[in-house]
Design brief:
The protein is of the alpha/beta class and 599 residues long. 43% of the residues lie in helices and 13% in strands. It folds into 5 domains: 63 residues; 94 residues, Glutaredoxin (3-Layer(aba) Sandwich); 214 residues, NADH-ubiquinone oxidoreductase 51kDa subunit (Rossmann fold), CATH 3.40.50.11540; 76 residues, Ubiquitin-like (UB roll); 84 residues, NADH-ubiquinone oxidoreductase 51kDa subunit, iron-sulphur binding domain (de novo design (two linked rop proteins)), CATH 1.20.1440. The longest helix is centred in the C-terminal third of the chain and has 18 residues. 48% of the residues are buried. The chain binds flavin mononucleotide and iron/sulfur cluster (SF4). The site of iron/sulfur cluster has 14 residues, from α19 and α21.
Length: 599
């Protein structure tokens, strides 16, 4: 072995040891390798496969799935620009072009000296303080040309990231409206103590009584989910906190984790108390790497306070601890079964359901997967009871909802309201001026026009996991739709044909219309594709991948039609022009050598 190979061998040996040579930790191991070597080389794949008892193909399958993992070296500074529609509205392209020019690197490429690489990435969850970028995985917000220059200088001078001005990495909470969750003081351990005093069954009864519904999107009743996991057969039980938050426009879980972490962790401990779990896993999206160290510190504090670990609060048998797992740049890993696959070290492809995770989840055992916000809510119920909780919001949507508001508003940020609040109220509070459209619940959600702003945020009217993106009167909704189509094409996991092919065709049709070659035929095709994906896709991503686009066609048809070349069919590819060279070679230019007789 050469010195470098020896170095490589000992680094991998140490990494494997740190992860207990557990194949289930493959994603975490690959992330460590990527961070150290800026890629995962073929020889590394082989060593890992051997060390983990996996085939090379299995390691490659995981590696190739995640956008933050690469086989080819990235730059020593890897810069990824967030490309959500709100970043675009804030001028991310100009920032990108400026950095590309100054650093002498083009999109998706590494500079000749290996110093820097530059690319776009899906929404990084910083829509209230965009445009945002990631530098070696760490978020930099509020990008301006001035900041871009500052970063280019730091990169050029090869200043290690640890020595960059801390101001660049500040992430604000931007809480604009706090209600029963965000405004309340929280004393760590108080909710657990209350639940322990009540007893497992009584506390579960309170959670059921509250009618709390999951805040991750689907709105399943939390108490029922916990009860199912508790009653399921298994050797072990697990609590998973879904902190993947990849839906474009959503950033409320970021704020809850960064500023209310004790609530989140205590919510996990409450779930463990009810269900009988010994281990909890936080699946933290890769884009939130900046807060990992802080979360680990918080966990250490909770262990020191005996609120995590063995015999919690002196209750015999109440042993529970929490680990943090990082995501690696895959939106689909927010889907709970894909998330579990990822936690097990595999590509994040959604499983066939049933069985549901409550009976067969992480490592085949009963598993509760809850959203970050849901886990905060259960602490309120422990402290104040289910009946109290039920008194807020509406009958079918109890309690409050934390919303992430971004786009054309004066005050982007976090707004907490009792369920049932009208969209018009949210818009007024956020300072929306002349809003033309509101996209609720991200790219997978629904698009509403001003006629619908009287509708309410609630499971029974307009449900949302939290994202509210506002588009002012001057916005071109075709461009919004095109951004969403590109997002879904990029994020489809490729497992099932309707979604894999459907999202690709959808994005191509949008590109064709944008290039001025669209006709009514393409408009009809978009509607048709949406229908096919909605009926035949395997998971929620494909089921909703066309919804926003067809919503926008229905509501803002003029934005699409003004781009249409003709009403009938218009080919995207000019075959006749492509045959010109053949005509030249054969010396023919008669009518029969052309596709169109009048040519
Ligand atoms: C494509 C897709 C992405 C999802 N992303 C998230 C996410 O980022 N966070 C989340 O909590 N739930 C997400 N979900 C919903 C989860 O599958 C699951 O329903 C949720 O985590 C359950 O928690 P809850 O009951 O507390 O809402 C997603 C679902 C789909 C289909
Ligand atoms: S619908 Fe899309 S994301 Fe879901 S399994 Fe199929 S290809 Fe994957």
């Amino acid at each position: 072995m050469t010195t470098t190979e020896t170095g490589l061998g000992s680094f991998l040996e140490l990494t494997l040891k740190q992860h207990g040579s557990d194949p289930g930790r493959l994603v975490q191991i690959l992330l460590d390798v990527q961070a150290h070597y800026s890629h995962v080389a073929p020889q590394v794949i082989e060593i890992l496969a051997e060390g983990l008892g996996l085939t090379v193909g299995a390691v490659e399958s995981t590696l190739d799935f995640y956008s933050f993992l690469t086989r080819e070296p990235t730059g020593a500074y890897r810069i990824l620009c967030s490309d959500n529609i709100t970043d675009r509205m804030l001028g991310n392209q100009a920032i990108f072009d400026h950095m590309a020019r100054r650093l002498g690197v083009s999109r998706g490429k590494v500079s000749a000296d290996g110093l820097v690489s530059l690319d776009f990435t899906s929404c990084t969850g910083m829509c209230d303080q965009g445009p945002a970028i990631l530098v070696n995985g760490i978020a930099v917000t509020k990008m301006t040309l001035h900041r871009a220059d500052q970063i280019c200088d730091l990169v050029r001078s090869r200043v290690p990231l640890a020595h960059w001005p801390s101001d660049l990495f500040r992430v604000e909470h931007n809480i604009r409206r706090a209600d029963m969750l965000l405004a309340a003081d929280f004393n760590p351990g108080s909710a657990l103590r209350a639940a322990v005093e009540m007893g497992r069954d009584a506390y579960l009864a309170e959670v059921k009584r509250s009618n709390l519904r999951g805040r991750g999107g689907a709105g399943f009743t939390t108490g029922v989910k916990w009860e199912a996991a508790r009653n399921a057969r298994g050797d072990a039980r697990y609590i998973v906190c879904n902190a993947d938050e990849g839906e474009p426009g959503t950033f409320k879980d970021r704020v809850l984790l960064q500023f209310y972490a004790e609530r989140v962790f205590e919510g996990m401990a409450l779930a463990a108390f009810v269900v009988g779990a010994k281990l909890g896993l936080v699946y933290l999206r890769g884009e939130y790497l900046y807060m990992r160290a802080q979360l680990e510190e918080k966990l250490a504090e909770l262990r020191a306070a005996r609120l995590l670990g063995g015999t919690i609060l002196g209750v015999q048998g109440f042993d529970f601890d929490i680990e943090i797992h990082m995501g690696a740049g895959a939106y689909i890993c927010g889907e709970e079964t894909a998330l579990i696959e990822s936690l097990e070290g595999k590509a994040g492809r959604p499983r066939i359901r049933p069985p549901f995770p409550v009976s067969v989840g992480y490592r085949g055992q009963p598993t509760v997967v809850n959203n970050v916000e849901t886990l905060c809510k259960v602490t309120e119920i422990a402290l104040h009871g289910g009946a109290w909780y039920e008194g807020f919001g509406t009958k079918q949507s109890t309690g409050t909802k934390v919303l992430s508001v971004a786009g054309d508003v004066e005050r982007p940020g976090i707004y907490e309201y009792p369920f049932g609040v009208r969209i018009a109220q949210v818009l007024e509070d956020a300072g929306a001026k002349n809003p033309r459209a509101v996209q609720v619940s991200g790219a997978a959600g629904q698009c509403l026009t001003s006629r619908e702003f009287g509708r309410r945020i609630a499971f029974e009217d307009v449900p949302t996991a939290g994202s509210i993106m506002v588009f002012g009167g001057h916005r071109d909704m075709f461009e919004v739709a095109r951004n969403f189509a590109q997002f879904f094409q990029h994020e489809s996991c490729g497992f099932c044909t309707p979604c894999r092919v459907g999202t690709t065709i959808q994005a191509r049709i949008m590109a064709k219309i944008a290039a001025g070659h669209g006709t009514q035929y393409e408009m009809n095709e978009l509607q048709h594709l949406c229908q096919v994906m909605r009926t035949a896709s395997h998971c929620g991503l494909g089921l909703t991948a066309g919804t926003a686009i067809t919503d926008m066609i229905d509501r803002f048809r003029e934005d699409f039609e003004k781009r249409l070349a003709r009403r009938d069919f218009e080919p995207a590819f000019d075959l006749d022009a492509a045959l010109a060279r053949a005509r030249e070679i054969t010396g023919r230019d008669d009518a029969d050598s052309r596709l169109l007789s009048d040519a």
